[in-house]
Amino acid sequence: MAPLWTSTDAATATGGRSTTVWQAHGVSIDTRTLQPGDLFVALKDVRDGHDFVAAALAKGAAAALVSRIPEGVAANAPLLIVPDVLAGLEALGRAGRARARARVIGVTGSVGKTSTKEMLRCMLLGQGSVHAAEASYNNHWGVPLTLARLPATADFAVIEIGMNHPGEIAPLARMARLHVALITTIATAHLAAFDGLEGIAREKATIIQGLEPGGIAVLPTDLAVSPVLLRAASAVRSLTFGTAKSADFQMLDVTLTADATIVQASHHGARRLLKLSAPGRHFAMNAMGCLAVAEALSLDPTIATHDLGRWQPPAGRGMRERIVLDAVDDLSFELIDDAYNANPASLAAALEVLAASQPTDGVGRIQHGRRIAILGDMLELGEGEAALHVAVAANPHLAAISTIHCVGPLMRGLHDALPKRQRGEWVATAPELLARAATLVDAGDIVLVKGSKGIKVSLMVDGLRKLGQVSPKTRGAE
């Protein structure tokens, strides 16, 4: 197999100096996941990556990208020495993009970036080789890392681009040199750094600045800020998706079942039927955006629609699992793992999915199967964050939920606003609730865990899994 980077190519790309001749077949920033033959990039974050260079080389790294020779590492070790490691990674990413033949799709939005990226990966695999960002690698180091890993022979590349503050998206989009730019939606996320939804929309729309000549923007029509996005795309070709009649890809009807979403859509008057293997109205809308991307790339629409149906939600983003409590008597509960992130829009979507799910009666200690929600704080919502948490109590889908447990100081507002019949436990931190995980669920229940990453409700996901065995019938995978 041809190497991803040779010492000569990498030195030319970065302007650095290679101490030896080497070949790398991958690029890594973490010794825990590094594979033999990877180029280790010694980024500085919570810890200085230079402290791990010796361990990376011992684990089989082909070389290390560094700004100095680390202590305990021989001067003749395979190193690529540059003035600044992050700038070196960015240069490597730009060079990786420049030599690639791939058509590049950039994805941004307040909600659904990673799920949509994975939808696109699944959809594109039937029509060529695909390189896509790992996990949520969508920031100032994640985008260049994804580009540095891009094989020159890939047919498609899907780049996730995120932001926490103004001015972050456009430079990353320009680095990626996009053929298609997809904006999933604009919602109340990262409000602490922006002056309302219009400010978020203007920042998200800067992804359009990364389009190559002839590139296409794919935009949602149903938002109050959709005109902001459309104005930003006025100088380029655009395709739209949504429920509006004006949308190029119009979603006509959505039916949620226990384990699927059935979508009726129209494209220029022609009807389309799409079935996704996971319930969620938000998933259906993301799929409309993916079908618009398929048209932007002139792909076969029938193959694209079929392959989208194979997509499964990744872990932490709506993945569903059957947790077997007793294999002999076939006693189990269902777990919906949506614990990676949360804002009002994504929480509303998750509650709709839970409300549409059907528990099993007559199998547990409690006669009736229950819908249970474990909800953690939604972070980075700005000055109105307390009111946004209380407002969740008015969500109509809560009526179908038996018990709601709340985690975090902000979720105390929701807990106090709930009717007593639905009010479960409130705790300030996830470990406090984790200690009582076994008392919260029963066979036949369906349990949703949702919250921002920082509140660590993912600990509850792990704790609930440990109550039994994950069934091989689990729906969804990383």
Written account of the structure:
- With 478 residues, the chain is of the alpha/beta class.
- It has three domains: 5-85, MurE/MurF, N-terminal domain (Udp-n-acetylmuramoylalanyl-d-glutamate--2,6- Diaminopimelate Ligase, Chain: A, domain 1), CATH 3.40.1390; 100-308, Mur-like, catalytic domain (UDP-N-acetylmuramoyl-L-alanine:D-glutamate ligase), CATH 3.40.1190; 319-470, Protein-Tyrosine Phosphatase, Chain A (Alpha-Beta Complex).
- Helices cover 30% and strands 24% of the residues.
- Strands 9-10-8-11-12-13-14-15-16 form a nine-stranded mixed sheet, sandwiched between helices.
- Helix 2 links the parallel strand 5 and strand 6 (63-66).
- Helix 7 packs parallel to helix 8 (226-232), helix 9 (281-296) packs antiparallel against helix 10 and helix 12 runs parallel beside helix 13.
- The two termini are 26 Å apart.
- 51% of the residues are buried.
- Mean pLDDT is 93; it is low at 472-478.
